[in-house]
Amino acid sequence: MRKEKIVVFSGAGMSAESGLKTFRDSDGLWEEYNVYEVATPEAWIADQEKVLHFYNLRRRQLLTAEPNAAHRALAELEAKADVRIITQNIDDLHERAGSISVLHLHGELRKARSSGNPNYVVSIDGSELVRGDVCPSGFQLRPHVVWFGEAVPMMEPAVEWVREADRLLVIGTSLNVYPAAGLVHEVGQGVPVTVFDPGSMDHFQLGEAEHIKYPAGEAVPKWVQDFISE
Ligand code: BV8
User: Fold this and answer.
1) Ligand 1 atom 56: the closest Cα is on which residue?
2) Is 106 a catalytic residue?
C-alpha cells in the first residue's frame, strides 16, 4: 500500500528545545542583532567581519546542540510514512536526527559559498569562517544562507512537495517570512494541516488547520506515536 506523503514545514521553534535561539521570541536573535546589519547583502558589503562573526557565533552554538525529541520523532515517522521536510532553519538537526529528505529553503549554516561563484559550495570544517577563506578562484567565502532581500532558489521544489502532500505538519514557525510562509497555502484542497506552536498564530489565516498549542518536543512525539499506532 502507498505510504501517506507527509510534508513537514519547520522553523526556528523546531530547534528551540535544542537550545538554539529563535528569531522573534522574547530572547530571540533579533533582540540582540539588527537583521539588516548581519543578514542582508548590504550588511555583507558594509562589514564582512561583522556578518562572518554573527554566523560563527551561531555555528559554535550549533556544534554543541543536539537534535531534540521532535527531530527524532520525525525521523521515526519515516517507518510509517513518506516524510519530506522543508525547513527554514539553517541548522543540521533534522539530518542529525536521521531524517533523510530535508530541503533547506534558507540555506545551511555549516556550508560556505564563493562570493564570486554561487555554484561553489563547501562544508565548513568546525565553526569558523573568516576573512581570507577564499574559493580556488580567490573569492571570499560567505555563509551559504539566503539573506533578506535575496532570492529563494529552492522555493519551486518546495512548492511541488507541498502540492503533492497528503498532509502538512507546520512546526515552530511564526510564518512571518515570505515567500516561505506562502507554502502553507499551497496544499491541495482538503489536505489536513496541523500547526505545532505554543504561540498564538492569530496573525496568520490558518483556516481549517488544527493548532496544537504545545512545544514541539512534547507534541510532535505524541502526534507521531498516535499516527504510527493508528
Ligand atoms: C525575498 C537565513 C525577493 C538567514 C532567513 C524589505 C526588504 C527586503 C525584503 C523584504 C522586505 N519586506 C519584506 C521582504 C521580504 C522578506 C521578508 O519576508 N521579510 C519579513 C521579515 C517581513 N523576505 C525575503 O527577503 C526573502 N527573499 O523576498 O527575495 C527577491 C526575489 C528575486 C530576486 C531578489 C530578491 C528571503 C527571506 C530569507 C531570509 N533568511 N534565514 C539566517 O538564518 O540568518 S529567514 C529566517 O527568519 C529563517 O530562515 C526563517 O525563515 C525566519 C524565522 O522565522 P521562524 O523560523 O518562523 O522563526 P520565528 O522566531 O519568527 O518564529 C518561531 C516560532 O516558533 C514562533 O511562532 C514561536 O511561537 C514558535 N516556538 C517557540 N518555541 C517553540 C515554538 N514552536 C514549537 N516548539 C517550541 N518549543
Assistant:
1) 11
2) yes
